[in-house]
Amino acid sequence: MKAILSPTAWMILAAWLVAASAIPSAAQDGGFSREDRDRLIRLEAVFTTFMQQFGKRLEDLRQDMNLRFQQVDKRFEQLDQRFAQIDRRFEQVDQRFEQVDKRIDQVDKRIDELSKHMGTLVQLMVAIVGAFAAVAAVTVGFALWDRRTMSRPFETRVKPLEKDVEKLGRLLEDLRMLAEKDKDLAEVLRSFTLL
After folding, report:
1. Is 36 exposed, middle or buried (CB count within 10 Å of its CB: 0-12, 13-18, 19+)?
2. What is the pLDDT of residues 170-183, one digit of tens each?
3. Where are the bilayer-spanning segments (predicted)?
């Protein structure tokens, strides 16, 4: 519950009341009368009551503030606990990230190893294709060389025979012309199916 006036305002009000009540009586007689004394006693009683109430209110305020500070402290402790939990969670997340980083490093190492193996396999494939191409080239070269070396002696033997066959062809033509005139020759040529 809030007070209508703050403690400082109560103090100022009490001081003003004391001063206000003392000034008119002093201005009337020039001294203190019994009435002034009674008034000061009442004022003192009011002021004492006021100070007691003010002290009680101040003590209540202090207790209320202490209670609130304790509640705030409890809230801060709860926040500290929550922050501690969050810190633990962040540490767990950091550990998980470290594990993921380690796994990524392992995967990178495996990829590097696979790249090396792939490079070796590519080199092997190139070597196999090169060897196959070399074997094919050697085979074709050998076949061409063999054909040329085989055909030369044959050509040297066949050329004279071709000339002889040509001569025989001309001879046969001549004999056919003669067979038109000679019937015995025509029969001989027919028996060999040359006519």
Report:
1. middle
2. 988 888 888 888 88
3. 121-145
Distance of alpha carbon 39 from alpha carbon 33, whole angstroms: 10
Query: What b/e sequence results for 40-69 when a residue is b if at least 16 CB atoms lie within 10 Å of its CB, and e otherwise?
Result: beebeeebeebeeebeeeeeeeeeeeeeee
- Six-digit token pair at 22? 């003392």
Residue 113: count of CB within 10 angstroms of its CB: 10
Q: Quick one: pLDDT at residue 128?
A: 93
Q: How far apart are CA 122 and CA 125, in angstroms?
A: 5
- Distance, in Å, from the CA atom of 108 to the CA atom of 114, rounded to the nearest integer, reads 10
- Low-confidence residues in the chain, pLDDT < 50: none
CA distance 84 to 152: 100
First-to-last C-alpha distance (Å) of the chain? 153
